[in-house]
Sequence to fold (121 residues):
Amino acid sequence: MTDSSALDPEDRKIVTLARSARARNGVPEGAAVRDDMGRTYVAGTVALPSLELSALRTAVAMAVASGATALEAAAVVGAAETADPADLAAVRDLGGPETPVLLAAPDGTVRTTVRAGASAQ
Fold:
């Protein structure tokens, strides 16, 4: 686990935003992504009868819909201890295989950082 205070301030920011989205919306996961211009996009899990999206895929979709063309980093806050391969693929599509994805516990403690190009955890 990584002490959140040891994180780069911009990475700490996206973890905090993801954590806030999770708590505010009462959803299983919160996520945030940062594009190459420094803009952030925040989302929670979408669970409708006709549409289900993870928080991270929703945040990536919001970035794309807002005109982002690249990602610098992503963060997911939730109970999962591993990255979902489909989430990594979405980040990789926009950010490339080296884009870091921070996986954090509900309290904001970063468990691990994986690269979007990593194989299933």
